[in-house]
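From the shared-data thread, chain only:
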Amino acid sequence: MERKSANVRGRGAGVNPVGRFERLRVVSDQPPPERVITELRRDSSRSIIARNDSPDIPFDASINPYRGCEHGCSYCYARPTHEYLGFSPGLDFESKILVKENAAELLRRELSAPRWRPQTLALSGVTDPYQPAEERLRITRGCLEVLAEARHPVVVVTKSARVLRDLDLLTQLARYRAAAVCLSITTLDGELAARLEPRASHPRRRLEALRRLSDAGVPCGVLMSPIVPGLTDHEIPTLLAAASEAGAGFAGYLILRLPGAVGELFEDWLERHYPERKDKVLNRLRSMRDGRLNDPRFGHRFRGQGAFAEQIRDLFHGHRRRLGLDRRGVELSTAAFRRPPGRQRTLFDL
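Structure, as tokens:
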């Protein structure tokens, strides 16, 4: 059901638009409830390693223990994935979370198969592996336990300081050059972050996570993702300096992209929180996307084009180079990989 837009406590979206595959559309003149409770649902996936052949993504295989993300980032490019499940990309995406309870078991099965050839896996890629449900469910930790047993290389990408809970496993993997962590930090402004990414860790806690990871010998870096032109791009120098001081060894960025329903949702977010900046932000985005809010072409979707895109690129690259953060991430090794034993077969498997 579609309702009027409103601020919902602890949520990024203020509306629940009907998914593009739904035939029935019901419109209500009532606003969303003041609070939306998170629902956890079982996911019945039969595999856990996802593949991609995108030329502008630096990994070929990834693990996503959850579908949907309670962090509620208003700009999240993954929101349209919930439409394939019959849910809304709005409030549903951040409150109806599908949980892959058997993720570790599936991962063990895939890594133990004779056909598996070790390669760097991304732990993330669509939704955050350390979103709030992970505190209790520990599904991401289960996957890391399998990876640590196999000495299999993994890069963790997260907006959460919860990653520190698994520092023991990450340091174990790092001894074999098989682990790196990338903390995604969009802004250092705590008030803006609370509106933009309502259930993600405070920027200070993410910087502290960088510091502790670095001190423990785990290679780590910062991803300024996304840069919102007209809203966060002015923070590039100070954010990179803070990340460098915290121990980051590399840095990257992505410019905001708004595929599908995300454009409408982010426009609504701007109207609710920063109406005086709405036109500036959207006009700059359109100037980078050939008049649109999204350009899906490889080579363009993450960087944009035109004068503003070049200004952001030059500013970021200049400060990154000055701070010594301009190496291309960390090259992980598969040399220590050992195939984990598969689950023992039982009569029920025959």
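Residues 344-350 have pLDDT under 50 and may be disordered.
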